[in-house]
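Would you mind giving me a polypeptide sequence along with per-residue structure tokens?
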Amino acid sequence: MLLQALELPIPQYGHIALIVGDDGTPLSKRNGSQSIQELRANGWLAEGIINYLARLGHTYTEDNYLSLTELANQFAVERLGRAPAHFDAQQLRHWQQQAILQVSETQLWNWLGQAVQAQVPHDLSAQFIAAIRANISYPHEALHWAKILFSDDLITSPEAQAILLKTDSDFFTKLR
């Protein structure tokens, strides 16, 4: 009535389903919920989070990664679910990986952060991104690869070290 009295357009309202955890209880600070700031600080891309959340309690005709514009254009109030939406960490990770594959090289380079940027020579950044893009989900994973590729230190697990010590030197000569 207030909007009518002010002669403002009246929006169409829709109700988004309650988001629940594995145990069926609503997500909350005490029950597994993370804030957007926490997700961002842990290396989650906004585009991946948005693609996941858009599908939580709403159905889309396409099941592939969609831009913000595509998500908005394909949104329909009548496709909002009525049942509680179950949070699935694996699905969130899937959309994170899809976002990594879709964002621009510049955006991905910035997201990887200063630690990776300090390790990877700038003139090799495009090649580095092309090599690791499909194999990472978080910036710390990219840092791991950067250290392997651009550090003089050989990073090996104790199991790998044991195998290397048992390997005949002739193997390394042939390998070289």
